[in-house]
Design brief:
Length: 263
């Protein structure tokens, strides 16, 4: 895939100057898809436009949604950025090592998620991502401006971007002929495609409902326990067929419970 297919997702951005600066940084490095989750400012206001300069088109085409799951619809891979260490065991990687992973599936949208200017992403929001990056900074002043963080990540991704989103061309030249081999997206990914995040999210909701029904989860602890399940499955990088199999198991359990109760 190309870097143009990567969504830059900002969760509840509060500063129009930051949003405008993010748009400019995106255009500097070839990114075009900006998604705003419940923005707390006017992304089309004068301040945002002032900072965007020649990236006004990115602000105009930006998509605003109410929730992070909506922002991730259709994406197969997502990386979240965080400035602090969290209690789970998921590793915090540096952008140069982790971000190229977003580009590995040809023709499949991916997302890079950034949190609020003042407090970043919540634990629940981080659970929607599969990997996590942290930009190393000086201990004397570790906090990064939102637009600066976006610019750093966009730069790193741009170093690995591919020129064509729908095909890979390999050209071989000899003295007699010039040959072009084209691989379609479907051929290149084969059976290794990661399930879209919204498909996996539907499985999480079904799993949570069933585990509550059978008493494995309790309402007052469901959030923390489901967080563990999300981390487990995110590490597994579930494929679409695997999610279908897991959902089939849940449906069979639900059927068995219903038939038992009907007797």
């Amino acid at each position: 895939m190309t870097i143009a297919e990567v969504k830059i997702v900002l969760v509840e951005p509060a500063g129009p100057l930051n949003v405008g600066s993010v748009a400019r940084a995106m255009k500097n490095f070839g990114f075009h898809q900006l998604v705003l989750v419940n923005p707390q400012c006017d992304p089309l206001g004068a301040e945002a436009k002032q900072m965007a300069v020649h990236a006004w088109d990115i602000l105009q085409s930006a998509v605003s949604v109410a929730t992070l799951p909506e922002a991730l619809q259709g994406c197969r891979r997502a990386i979240a950025t965080t400035g602090i260490a969290h209690h789970w065991k998921a590793p915090l990687e540096n952008p140069r090592a982790a971000l190229p992973w977003l580009l590995e599936e040809i023709g499949q949208p991916a997302a890079l998620i950034f949190g609020r200017e003042d407090r970043g992403l919540t634990n629940q929001e981080l659970n929607y991502a599969q990997r996590f990056v942290r930009i190393s900074t000086s201990c004397a002043y570790p906090s990064l401006n939102l637009a600066t963080a976006v610019a750093i990540c966009c730069y790193e991704l741009a170093q690995h971007g591919k020129p064509d989103a729908t095909q890979i061309q390999q050209k071989f030249h000899n003295s007699d002929s010039f040959c072009t081999i084209t691989l379609t997206s479907e051929q290149a990914t084969g059976d290794s495609e990661v399930a879209p995040l919204d498909v996996v999210e539907a499985y999480y909701q079904q799993l949570e409902s069933l585990l509550l029904k059978i008493g494995f989860l309790y309402p007052h602890t469901v959030a923390s326990r489901m967080e563990k399940f999300r981390q487990l499955y995110n590490r597994a990088q579930l494929r679409t067929q695997e999610v279908a199999m897991l959902r089939g198991i849940l449906r069979q359990v639900e059927w068995a419970l219903k038939n038992k109760s009907d007797r």
